[in-house]
Amino acid sequence: MAVTTLERQRPVRVAPEPRARGERLTRLTIGELDQVFGDLDPATLGELQGHKRGRVMAVSGFDWVPGIARSAALRVVNQLPIWRGQTFEGEFGTNTWLWLFGRNRLDFARYLVREAPALDGRGPVIQLDYDVAANPRPLRRILGELRHLGPGLFLARIQVCLPGSDRVVKILYFTLES
Fold first, then answer.
1. Would you give the DSSP letter of residue 16?
2. Burial letters for 73-109: b for 16+ Cβ neighbours within 10 Å, e otherwise?
3. Contact at 8 Å (CB) between 117 and 125?
4. CA 81 to chain centre
5. Integer CA distances (angstroms), 79 to 28, 82, 101, in order
């Protein structure tokens, strides 16, 4: 008499597409995104050339809003014809904005792009340093940090260095996609 056992097969999980992963991030708080960001690998400068479509994932001060409502609000914000992402050209970059009327774009808020240690000390990042003479003085206190989230997808955060102190405040998280 042969004995056979039936083993229950576990479903195979397929990794979600990068954009789907990015959209799920809108349900996370700033603190949770800090943890995700800390676990990511650094991006390379070569991956960042050209225009990258941007989407806001979290804004400081809105963690009290339930995740599903925050996600829905950010979905609307990301469809507005305002901030469209960033454009990288060598060691420089700029934010790309659209005029409300027409298809013209406005490049505003330039930054230097370089490899640097993260401000929180958790490894290397691509740093977006807005301390550029072409920017208005208030923008020069902004530092962005960027890491690789998936193929063609990056997670970035914008932080402001407060004047007269070593304190850094996170303003928002966003993704950039090729």
1. P
2. ebeeebeeeebbbbbbeeeebbbbbeeeeeeeeeeeb
3. yes
4. 18
5. 19, 8, 15
Look at residue 38 and give its three-state secondary structure: helix
Q: Which amino acid is at 93?
A: G
**pLDDT value for 32:** 93
Q: Please report the sign of the dihedral spanned by the C-alpha atoms of residue 65, residue 63, residue 41, residue 91.
A: positive
Structure tokens at 143: 């530092």
Encoded tokens for 16? 């979600």
Contact 151, 43 (CB under 8 A): no
Q: What is the pLDDT of residues 84-108, one digit of tens each?
A: 889 999 899 999 887 555 566 677 8
Among residues 92, 97, 93, the alpha carbon closest in space to that of 107 is found at 97
More reliable by pLDDT, 95 or 19 = 95
Residue in the structure block whose two tokens are 């005029």? 99
